[in-house]
Every structure is written in structure tokens, then in C-alpha cells.
Amino acid sequence: MAPAKSVDFPAGADGGSASGANEGGEGHRDIEAGGWASAPAPAPALSTTSRPRGQRLASLDVFRGITVVLMIVVDDVGGLVPAISHSPWDGVTLADFVFPFFLFIVGVSLAFAYKRVPDRALATKKAVIRASKLFLLGLVLQGGFFHSIHDLSYGVDIRKIRFMGVLQRIAIAYLTVALCEIWPRGGASDIGAGGYTLIKRYRHQLFVGLFLTVTYTALLYGMYVPDWEYEVTSQDTTLNHFMVKCGVRGDTGPGCNAVGMIDRHVLGIQHLYTRPVYLKTAQCSINSPRNGPLPSNAPTWCEAPFDPEGLLSSLMAIVTCLIGLQIGHIIVHFKEHGERIVRCSIPSLSLLILGFSLDLFGLRLNKSLYSLSYTCVTTGTAGLFFAGIYLLVDVYGYKKPLFPMEWVGKQALMIFVLVACNIAPILLHGFYWREPQNNLLKFIGIGD
């Protein structure tokens, strides 16, 4: 079978990946040339060793493809079924797992992409270039350049461009974790080494993850958030001025948290996301959990911009990617299927239990803040899900039924650009008969 082109980013209104994982690849070459997708022979028992050198880890592509499909489903159906759409603030729904799954996949992929790094300087240069391209792509697609599908308007006022976004955050996480894999690592690889040896080899990466977690937690709960103000232009072009009363420390509500404060001061409030998810809360919508008119007693922060892919919360996104990297190390260093699954499942289950415990004790699950409990629950779920897919696809060989998901996983970035960023609807809307309203979208029954 001809080599399959690698996917730099696994996609998603919330996602991305460095490349397809190749178990016998030549280190950094994998991230550039990709792997190949030859079908593995069915493995009847968990004690069977892994596939021969050079065969692609199909389960990772399947995992990425399932996540892409999940992204499309929650984006398109979430408006009709709020239970699967993003949680308005605290709590998690099906949609809230999509972005962490993509970050997890990035981390796993990087373990294969940089399994061997003969030239660290060259690998660093390529990682920086790749991350820069991804960041710039996100800036164009999610910074406000494409405004409306229906009137085909485009262009962005640089004074109001959104700096952060899904692709931008993935670029940051990818570059940080890639550098951790290229530089601060132990000595020569010991295939089949025990868990302690693995921890010792990658102790620097674990320290980075711990440092980021402590820094995030200290800033979130330790920073003082003063009163602040903002302006919003209403539909009748009236400029409305609002004052948000805070004067608190450690608040994790929508209006007075340190995540939003840092973004307002560093990025500028005019560069933040203008349709925050907390507009669907009962405090800000009479149709909650759907968007709706503001209640008469709505808090002043309801219409304030807030970026769910902000600076402080990106620290925990990097931690998610780092955890995925460690799961990738397990696949690289251990060759028995059973050992791989057990060593992936135990830490993943531990994270899941820890996350729910933290939520029980008051550190609430929250995607917008990317809280510690949310990081543990979503990453633990990703690890268990990956172990299950690995068991089905790479161990027992159930690859043909999941081939569509594998194909989607290999084309993830293209699908994200066309579907999640509304490029496909814009293209379809641009072809019409005589009058713009007689466009292809209307012809296939989804236009206005």
C-alpha cells in the first residue's frame, strides 16, 4: 500500500496532532513523511507482541477520526440537543471532551515523531516552523477574517482580531511538548524497561507538567481580581458601558476569575472571543441552556468577551498534551500488548478518579477555565478510550469496520478547515443561480 500522507493536526473545533504514529519509524522523519497503513494481522491474545517494525499504529488514526466525527456531531446537533453541547460553565458534557482528546492525541503522536532525534537543533527548527504555520492558520480561520456565511463578508479589523483560538492553542501545546521531548530527556532508550526507569528517563517532562499545574493553580486561586469595565455595541449601534464588580481573590465564576483578567490585561479585551459560552447560563439567558434574551436582572458580565482558549488556561492544555506524551512513551518502550494496555489504563483510571474527587471537594470541572479537575477527567477518559481502541484495532485486528474513522483521522486538518471553520458552507453558498439567495446550500435544503 502506498505511503499515507501524515496529518499535522488532528482537527476539531476543539483539536490537533503532530503526525500519524509509526511504530518503527526513524524518529523525526515520521512527523514529516508520515507512516503507512497496512492492515495488522489479528492478534488472538494480549500476550502477543506488537506488529513488525514500520507498521502504522492504526488505533491512533481511528481515535483521531472518531474525535473528528464527534466534533462535527456536537457542533451540528448541539444546538438542538443542549445536553451534548458545551457546558455553560461548571460541569462537563460530551462536547467538552473533544478538545482534550485532540491535545492528548498530539502528545501520543509526538512520542513517535521524536522517538529518535539525531539532530536536536534541526528538530527544534522544524517544530517551531510547524507550530508557527498552525498558529497563523488559526489566526486567519478563527481570528475573525471569515464573518458570515450568509452575506459572504470577510476581512478583519486588526484592532479587534482574536489572537487565541483552537488552532493557536494546539500550536502552543505542540511546540512546548515537542521541545520537552527533543531536549530535556534521559539517556538512551531502554525498550521494555520498568516503570521506574521510564519515570526517571522522563522526569524532566513530569517536572514541567507539575510546574505548569502548580503555577496555574496558584494564579487562579491566588490572584486578586479588581473591578473592571467594558463596552458593547448593541444591534442599534448604541454603545453600552458596563462595570463588573469583583474585588475578590480565587473566584471561579464567569465574571471575576483570574483567567479572564490575565487575558484582558495581556491580550486586550477587544481581542477576546465575543460570544462566550456563559451566555447560555440561567443568569444570562431566559432560554438556558440555550442562548436567549437576557433576563431583566442579568449580571453586568453577561455580554463581556471571554476567551475559552486564553493564556492561563493554556497551561493546563499543555499538561493534557504532556500526559498524552507519556502514554505514547508506554507504547514506544513496551512491546507486549497486555503490558501496554495495563500501563496505559492504570494511570488513566487514576486521573479519572482524581478528577472527580477534586470536583467533589470544590475544584469544579470547567472547560472554559480548563480547571485541574477537568484536565484529570478528560485526559483520564482519553487514555482509557485510547486503550480500548488499541485493544480492538491493533490487538484483535478489527480494522476494516473502522476504516472510515481511520481515513477521517488521516485527513483531520482538511476536515477541520472545511467543516469546523465553515469554509465548506461558504464555498457552497458562493455558487448560486442568478440571485445570491438561490445558492447550493438552499438547493440541498440547509440554506435560509
How big a fraction of the residues is strand? under 5%
Contiguous runs where pLDDT drops below 50 for at least 5 residues: 1-54
Largest sheet, order of strands side by side? 1-4
Radius of gyration from the alpha-carbon trace, in angstroms: 22 Å
Order of helices and strands: HHHHHHHEEEEHHHHHHHH
Q: What global shape is seen?
A: globular
Global mean pLDDT: 81
Number of strands: 4
How would you sum up the major sheet?
A: 2 strands, antiparallel
If helices are DSSP runs of H or I spanning 4 or more residues, what is the number of helices?
Answer: 15
Overall SS class: mainly alpha
How many domains make up the 3D coordinates?
1
Region (Disordered): 1-34
Protein name: Heparan-alpha-glucosaminide N-acetyltransferase catalytic domain-containing protein
Biased composition (Gly residues): 13-24
InterPro entries: HGSNAT_cat (IPR012429)
Describe, in short, the structure shown.
Keywords: Membrane, Transmembrane, Transmembrane helix. Residues 1-34 are annotated as: Disordered. With 448 residues, this protein is mainly α.
Fold and architecture overview:
With about 450 residues, the chain is mainly alpha-helical. It has one domain. The protein is about 50% helix and about 5% strand. Helix 2 packs parallel to helix 13.
Throw out a few tags for this protein.
HGSNAT_cat, 15 helices, mainly alpha, two-stranded antiparallel ribbon, 48% helix, membrane, disordered N terminus, transmembrane helix, 448 residues, single chain, two-stranded antiparallel sheet
